[in-house]
Amino acid sequence: MSKVIIIGAGGVGGVVTHKCAQLPEVFSEIILASRNEKKCKAIAAQLDRPIRTAQVDADNVPELTALLEKEKPDLVINVALPYQDLHIMDACLAAGVDYLDTANYEPLDTAKFEYSWQWAYREKFEQAGLMALLGSGFDPGATNVFTAYLAKHYFDEIHELDIIDVNGGDHGYPFATNFNPEINIREVTAECRHWENGEFVTTPAMSKKASFTCPEEVGNYNIYRMYHEELESLVVNFPTLKRAQFWMSFGESYLKHLEVLGNVGMTGIDPIDYNGQQIVPIQFLKALLPDPSTLGPRTKGKTCIGCVVKGVKDGKQKIVYLYQIKDHQDCYAEVQSQAISYTTGVPAMIGAKMMLESKWKKPGVWNIEQFDPDPFMEDMNKYGLPWEVIELDNFNLDD
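Above: the chain sequence. Below: its structure as tokens.
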């Protein structure tokens, strides 16, 4: 029986709240907090059990600290913007509360994705006797746990990792993003980095393309290599990796719109002067695009996200693919959300459950793959994200 405060009332925040509310034996008291309490109340009205809501500015550390000291939760689940991670971690330290998030910190003025800022908090959390679990979404999150699970059960050594994220859903809009537009576009347009022979190699964004056929008739998709933050922690925690890459699918319409928007400056993150006031182009674009939390009822199709790992077992080379497929409309029927938010929100709930049940409990700042993957994988099967493992005869995305 535990009290949690969920910070963030977007699409993922809605899913986390729904899934936590389904487990009153674990999450006995839930408070959903956001700068916009109206959005919190709208999510609360969808639930079968009562929860409380609160208004809080997560960038205001004293204000958030005061809320945490008043409520004394066992855990803060941070599904706000990545820009706010450090402020929320500061408040958790000040109030003596454990912390969990789904995406690493990134500075507001630089499209830079790395864990260095949060890893710098290790000693502070350890000395305070508090735990911070980083990246408990799907990617990062479930994909990290998939890697750990395969390394534990299928290999003596893992040598190559390809994380492949395919969204086969169609929302019907000419251009929209499936999660926060500002974060999504910054991520996609950033330089690519992949791990090769002991170092990160930088290449232009979206410059490497491959074709990938998903299992279970999800379909064939063009996937593009890009940088994703889980690579940074996985190559540290699995030092036998010789190569690690992240791939994501994109449709031609999305890429063409993104190219045009970039060419005219609408994806820029530096402020410009407009009629005597400073505006950030990408933030203005965000205001024009559909809210990702409204895409649920109109998105059809499936996601397919997983890890292909090459390595050695008993002296023999092998290739194993662990994947999860989710139907967008199934997600909407359950929690009024599309599958992108669902596949991020469920692992956040499971990571919180692992901490509250003390299955994963250790002072300090940790990435999700540093804990035993088995109970997390069991809960994925129980709570809406069933997965499969298949062995492959061959696999190559270099052609």
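The mean pLDDT is 93.
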